Amino acid sequence: MKIETGNVATIAYDITTAEGEIVESSDISGPIAILVGAQSMIPGLDKRLVGLDVGAEETFEIPPEEAFGTEEDAPTNVVSRAEFPKDAKLEVGQKFQANMPNGTTLTLAIREISDDTVTTAMIHPLAGKTLSVSVKIISVRAATSKETEAGRAMVTPPPPPPKK
């Protein structure tokens, strides 16, 4: 069965930066099942999976615009000026790190400052980076109605193969 948008594909994968830095690997976390077309992993990956069949092994280069974006197009958030220390000297362009509840560290860049608010861009650590994604298609199946409604695969993928 070839992958189509709306199928659930279970994949083994390696994600690296163009510089060779390992971002994530199913060798560590195990294969994942994704609802193709729901942009559940990296947006540009979904369209590259369409048409592949079980057993296919491919490597894709995914530009920043189809991965985690660029610093320039990072989403923004407006926060109260009161969230910052009163004596903080804030300047447009200033950057600082913020730890998110899920453990991810984001760079926040100040875009605008008013008397009451500060607008920051929320920059993902991989923003601006081209990614290399190697995949092996383990299985493909039609999504259930619950998966389609939820917008995600609802299965636990098989454990990774034993190391040789």
TrEMBL record:
Record keywords: Chaperone, Cytoplasm, Isomerase, Rotamase
Domain PPIase FKBP-type: 6-90
Enzyme class (EC, first level): isomerase
InterPro entries: PPIase_dom_sf (IPR046357), PPIase_FKBP_dom (IPR001179)
Gene Ontology cellular-component annotations: cytoplasm
Single GO term (MF): peptidyl-prolyl cis-trans isomerase activity
Coiled coil residues, start to end: none
Region named Disordered: 145-164
Family label: Belongs to the FKBP-type PPIase family.
Function: Also involved in hydrogenase metallocenter assembly, probably by participating in the nickel insertion step. This function in hydrogenase biosynthesis requires chaperone activity and the presence of the metal-binding domain, but not PPIase activity.
UniProt-recorded name of the protein: Peptidyl-prolyl cis-trans isomerase
Organism: Plesiocystis pacifica SIR-1
Lineage: Bacteria, Pseudomonadati, Myxococcota, Polyangia, Nannocystales
